[in-house]
């Protein structure tokens, strides 16, 4: 991956990912790109990623373009990743909003959910706390850019390796069933989630407003103007008294849009000064 | 400060060696036992803070060992994490009901052991 031709392919790839999904692609680390795209090249029948990118450039086939962009956008997905935001969700965010909403549903959005581990982690907590908040309705939406990821998420099937990363054994036996060598979320959990393909750089208003939005480790990977735009769109989609959860170590252009909540790393509230500038 | 101790109970010497290396890296002093009888002798001499426990072993298997251990003086104290090829949901339930805190299905790696120990409340 060091010929002038391959360099041109990487430049093309970076431009494509920026335009389609607002992604920042670091072309000085070609091995990372190769890790992401080699499986796509293999599935699509190309000998290597150079050939794949040449074909994308020549054919301009929208389906192929999205497979490439989606593969570049995919992040790490594990159950209860970083733990702290889930503890806050269970102990604070959900009970507070359940009280405030009364008969109306609490709307929760797991944005950029990948293969669904974050979304199902939230579903487990909602299910486990149901007894403490009788009558509370929760609407849970999981969204991702990638159709492939959403298909896997929707299947609710995970490997033994995946269910051992971040998931307590007690939760495994409570919320999963064994299906051959795979682990399947119970139908009850799966029915709690609505899955949608959402490109966050697009118009988010059709999704309505949410009380809790998890969008972790995603904005930090975007090209700055797009990251700022997505953050503003999320803030607009957030209820005035809602919570926005970003990655704990994420540096996002937050000023004037959201403000950090004291003592809760990665958790933000809508900035009262923020108004839709559109 | 005293190092935390972990007893690794497995009839495979290779597994014990791999587990020992991982546990020493996360700050444990490690002892080894080849089956439940051997493990019980260890516990009677010096109760460990944690036990990484295989299921299928000669002499006394993991679940029988755990049930006996919990009846011993001081035997409620160790945090027990199963580590076995048994991956039936009923087996996992049985282990948790018998007083195990966590359950690792083989094959495992350092990340899984570290994460499961953290989940079990061990540092």
Summarize it:
The complex is a heterodimer of chains A (278) and B (123). With 278 residues, chain A is an alpha/beta fold.
Write structural notes for this entry.
The complex is a heterodimer of chains A (about 280) and B (about 120). Chain A has about 280 residues and is an alpha/beta fold. Chain A folds into two domains: about 5-75, Chemotaxis Receptor Methyltransferase Cher, domain 1; about 85-155 and about 185-270, Vaccinia Virus protein VP39 (Rossmann fold, 3-Layer(aba) Sandwich). Chain A contains eleven helices and ten strands. Chain A has helices at about 5-20, 30-45, 50-60, 60-75, 85-100, 115-130, 145-155, 160-165, 170-175, 185-190, 225-235; strands at about 105-110, 140-145, 155-160, 175-180, 180-185, 195, 210-215, 240-245, 260, 265-270. In chain A, strands 6-2-1-7-8-10-9 form a seven-stranded mixed sheet, with helices on both faces. In chain A, helix 1 crosses helix 4. The radius of gyration of chain A is 20 Å and the shape is globular. In chain B, helix 3 (about 60-70) links the parallel strand 3 and strand 4 (about 80-85). Chain B has a single domain (about 5-110), classed as Response regulator (Rossmann fold, 3-Layer(aba) Sandwich). By secondary structure, chain B is α/β, with parallel strands linked by helices. The interface of A and B includes residues 166, 168, 169, 172 and 176 of A.
Secondary structure: elements and pairs:
The complex is a heterodimer of chains A (278) and B (123).
Chain A: H1 4-21, H2 30-44, H3 49-59, H4 62-73, H5 84-101, E1 106-111, H6 117-129, E2 138-144, H7 147-155, E3 157-158, H8 160-163, H9 169-175, E4 176-179, E5 182-185, H10 187-190, E6 193-197, E7 210-214, H11 224-237, E8 238-245, E9 258-260, E10 267-270
Parallel strand pairs in A: 1-2, 1-7, 2-6, 7-8
Antiparallel strand pairs in A: 3-5, 4-5, 8-10, 9-10
Chain B: E1 4-9, H1 13-25, E2 28-33, H2 36-45, E3 50-53, H3 62-71, E4 79-84, H4 89-97, E5 102-105, H5 110-119
Helix pairs in contact in B: 2-3
């Amino acid at each position: 991956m060091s010929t002038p031709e391959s360099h041109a392919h990487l430049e093309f790839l970076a431009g494509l990912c920026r335009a389609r999904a607002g992604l920042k692609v670091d072309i000085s680390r070609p091995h990372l790109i190769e890790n992401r795209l080699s499986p796509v090249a293999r599935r699509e029948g190309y000998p290597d990623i150079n050939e794949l990118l040449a074909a994308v450039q020549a054919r301009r086939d929208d389906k192929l373009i999205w497979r490439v962009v989606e593969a570049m956008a995919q992040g790490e997905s594990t159950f209860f990743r970083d733990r702290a935001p889930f503890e806050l969700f269970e102990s604070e965010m959900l009970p507070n909003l359940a009280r405030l909403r009364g008969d109306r549903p609490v709307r929760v959005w797991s944005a950029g959910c990948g293969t669904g581990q974050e979304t199902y982690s939230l579903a487990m907590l909602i299910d486990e706390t149901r007894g403490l908040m009788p009558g509370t309705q929760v609407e849970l939406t999981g969204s991702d850019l990638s159709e492939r990821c959403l298909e896997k998420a929707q299947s609710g099937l995970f490997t033994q390796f995946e269910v051992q990363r971040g998931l307590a054994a007690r939760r495994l036996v409570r919320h999963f069933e064994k299906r051959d060598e795979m682990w399947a979320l119970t139908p009850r959990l799966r029915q709690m989630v609505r899955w949608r393909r959402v490109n966050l750089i697009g118009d988010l208003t059709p999704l309505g407003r949410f009380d809790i939005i998890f969008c972790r480790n995603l904005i930090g990977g975007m090209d700055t103007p797009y990251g700022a735009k997505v953050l503003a769109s999320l803030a607009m989609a957030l209820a005035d008294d809602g919570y926005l959860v970003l990655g704990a170590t994420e540096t996002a252009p937050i000023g004037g849009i959201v403000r950090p909540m004291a003592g809760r790393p990665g958790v933000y509230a809508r900035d009262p000064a923020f108004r839709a500038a559109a | 400060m005293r190092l935390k101790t972990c007893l690794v109970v497995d009839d495979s010497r290779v597994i014990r060696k791999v587990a020992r290396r991982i546990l020493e890296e996360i700050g444990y002093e490690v002892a080894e036992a080849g089956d439940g009888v051997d493990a019980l002798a260890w516990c009677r001499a010096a109760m460990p803070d944690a036990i990484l426990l295989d299921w299928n072993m000669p002499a006394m298997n993991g679940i029988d060992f755990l049930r006996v251990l919990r009846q011993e003086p001081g035997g409620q104290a160790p945090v027990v994490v199963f580590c076995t090829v048994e991956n039936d949901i009923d087996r996992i339930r049985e282990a948790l009901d018998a007083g195990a805190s966590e359950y690792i299905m083989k094959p495992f790696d350092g990340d899984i052991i570290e994460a499961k120990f953290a989940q079990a409340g061990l540092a």
